[in-house]
Description:
Elements: H1 2-8, H2 12-23, E1 25-27, E2 30-31, E3 34-35, E4 39-41, H3 50-59, E5 71-76, E6 79-84, H4 89-109, E7 120-121, E8 138-139, E9 142-143, E10 145-146
Parallel strand pairs: 7-10
Antiparallel strand pairs: 1-4, 2-3, 5-6, 8-9
Protein name: Reverse transcriptase domain-containing protein
Domain Reverse transcriptase: 1-144
Amino acid sequence: MTKLYDRFAIDGKALLWIYDFLGNRVFNLKYNGSLSSSFRSRQGIPQDSVLRLILFSLYIFGMESVIADNCRIGLFAGDIIVWCSVSDNDKIESSLNNAIQRIQDFATDHKLCFNPLKSVTGFFRANRHLYRYNPRISLNGYIFSAIGTPSEKPRVCR
């Protein structure tokens, strides 16, 4: 809430409305036709809420500034993509690991959970000698799983 006020100048009734929305929600669970008693939720945002993406975007604002110069970051709803374009494989691996660590530090500073178990790497290459190369990207000792290796040279769409 302080970030909404300090950084984005959201105040007055709008800030109170968001505070009330986030802090005073009650929900029930339905299982096998039976409805549970009510539970109070003091954190998180409902999955289908229109505010979810807006608040998440505001909350992670500034994450792009922690990435090293030779890497780029894209933020899409609740997903983050980091990439670099360098010809040296060791430099790619080092840069990406550095970027992942900086994102983790940002997440920790902002009380976010960055889950390496839900993270994957992909390595796109035009050099056919590197088709089997997958950089070792890790966080806290966990090596991210690698996804798809192209079986042929990438085609340029025109």
